[in-house]
Automatic annotation (TrEMBL):
<feature type="region of interest" description="Disordered">
    <location>
        <begin position="123"/>
        <end position="146"/>
    </location>
</feature>
<feature type="domain" description="HTH myb-type">
    <location>
        <begin position="62"/>
        <end position="116"/>
    </location>
</feature>
<keyword id="KW-0677">Repeat</keyword>
<dbReference type="GO" id="GO:0005634">
    <property type="term" value="C:nucleus"/>
</dbReference>
<keyword id="KW-0805">Transcription regulation</keyword>
<feature type="domain" description="Myb-like">
    <location>
        <begin position="9"/>
        <end position="61"/>
    </location>
</feature>
<keyword id="KW-0539">Nucleus</keyword>
<dbReference type="GO" id="GO:0000976">
    <property type="term" value="F:transcription cis-regulatory region binding"/>
</dbReference>
<feature type="domain" description="HTH myb-type">
    <location>
        <begin position="9"/>
        <end position="61"/>
    </location>
</feature>
<keyword id="KW-0804">Transcription</keyword>
<feature type="domain" description="Myb-like">
    <location>
        <begin position="62"/>
        <end position="112"/>
    </location>
</feature>
<dbReference type="InterPro" id="IPR017930">
    <property type="entry name" value="Myb_dom"/>
</dbReference>
<dbReference type="InterPro" id="IPR001005">
    <property type="entry name" value="SANT/Myb"/>
</dbReference>
<protein>
    <submittedName>
        <fullName>Uncharacterized protein</fullName>
    </submittedName>
</protein>
<dbReference type="InterPro" id="IPR051953">
    <property type="entry name" value="Plant_SW-associated_TFs"/>
</dbReference>
<dbReference type="Pfam" id="PF00249">
    <property type="entry name" value="Myb_DNA-binding"/>
</dbReference>
<keyword id="KW-0238">DNA-binding</keyword>
Length: 326
DNA sequence: AAGCGGAGCAACCGCACAATG
DNA sequence: TCATTGTGCGGTTGCTCCGCT
């Protein structure tokens, strides 16, 4: 693709990001947002490609990231979602506020896979090894997580496949049941607005008018009542569904989110760049921002939100942040 | 103390898709 | 309709750390 030569031509930096680079990027995004990643490096004065900036922001600098070890509940959720979604890390990540797809992918590849194997479960099929021998391929958990449009005969058949696979898996939930449970309020299997159309949406073919990124959005709603009950009930978990109810249009009210969930000194959150900034960069947990990448209205809203969240941090912690070292 | 190997993690690569001209 | 550009995603690589010998 000529990417290498492009990098050489532009003398772009690669490899680990320095604190100075992080600072530049963070400042730039706080000030201008990121309407176009390709222009960010130039505007921010970075010798990086836009892609690298985007990745750095998403996986590391974003203020709503939750760092540190995954809890057992989070691991369980990942396993359950993987049984249904396969390697669609971004969709799985959408269900875990503050976690990135990269983080989850790494966790899966390094820890969870191993654990499952040790317990006699094939991480690809989520079935006991003894049961797999001689059985048909598992459509859901095949190596490549990306689902091509051409593979989608229809949303309904895919949905059925997913459901079949999930229900066949030991101990894992049935999508239809979940959606049915969700339907006690607004959705039903037969009228799930997310699944009516198979237009050009990636993955599971969603109704574009609803513009939520994926089926994950549906499970956000569903899982909020099922998965998260055992989790921290005063943070993200209890809000996922309200986000849905709010009609996919409401960004978190930062004034009410304020103080809702910060990284507390007692938390075992690992702080790297923030440590560089004297170790006191406390970021609010803003689950909707990460978990619900709205498409409609999107970039401006997202940028605006990023700016707001950063500003909020800045306001709350003025003694620390203005002291960015240069 | 040095070497080795595995684990964990950050970042890169290549591809697919969407948007735009 | 086609080409180009931008973005997002999943797979993979390579570096660092740490425990073991």
């Amino acid at each position: 693709m000529g990417k290498q030569s492009y990098l050489h031509k532009q003398k772009l930096r690669r490899g680990l990001w320095s604190p100075e680079e992080d600072e530049k990027l963070l400042k730039h995004i706080a000030e201008y947002g990121h309407t176009s990643w390709s222009s960010v490096p130039k505007l921010a004065g970075l010798q990086r490609c836009g892609k690298s900036c985007r990745l750095r922001w998403i996986n590391y600098l974003r203020p709503d990231l939750k760092r540190g070890k995954f809890s057992q509940e989070e691991e369980d959720i990942i396993i359950e979602l993987h049984a249904v979604l396969g390697n669609r890390w971004s969709q799985i990540a959408a269900q875990l506020p503050g976690r990135t797809d990269n983080e989850i992918k790494n966790l899966w590849n390094t820890c969870i896979k191993k654990k499952l194997r040790q317990t006699g479960i094939d991480p690809n099929t989520h079935k006991p090894f003894s049961e797999i021998e001689g059985t048909e391929d598992d459509k859901i958990s095949s190596g490549s997580g990306r689902l091509k449009q051409t593979e989608l005969e229809s949303d309904l058949t895919l949905m059925q496949d997913i459901e079949d696979s999930a229900t066949k898996s030991i101990g894992y939930f049935s999508l239809s049941k979940l959606i049915c449970s969700a339907s006690t309020t607004t959705l039903s299997v037969s009228s799930n607005p997310l699944l009516l159309h198979n237009q050009n949406n990636r993955g599971l073919g969603l109704n574009p008018e609803l513009s939520c990124s994926s089926i994950a959005s549906a499970t956000t709603f569903v899982s909020s009542s099922i998965f998260y009950n055992s989790m921290d009930s005063n943070s993200s978990s209890s809000k996922s569904s309200s986000f849905w109810y709010d009609g996919l249009s409401s960004w978190p009210d930062l004034t009410t989110e304020r103080g809702n969930k910060y990284l507390l000194p007692g938390d075992s959150e690992e702080m790297k760049w923030p440590q560089y900034l004297q170790g006191n960069f406390l970021a609010p947990s803003l689950p909707h921002y990460q978990s619900q990448p709205l498409h409609a209205g999107d970039l401006q809203v997202e940028s605006h939100f990023a700016l707001e969240s950063l500003n909020l941090c800045f306001q709350n912690h003025q003694p620390e942040l203005p002291q960015l070292q240069s």
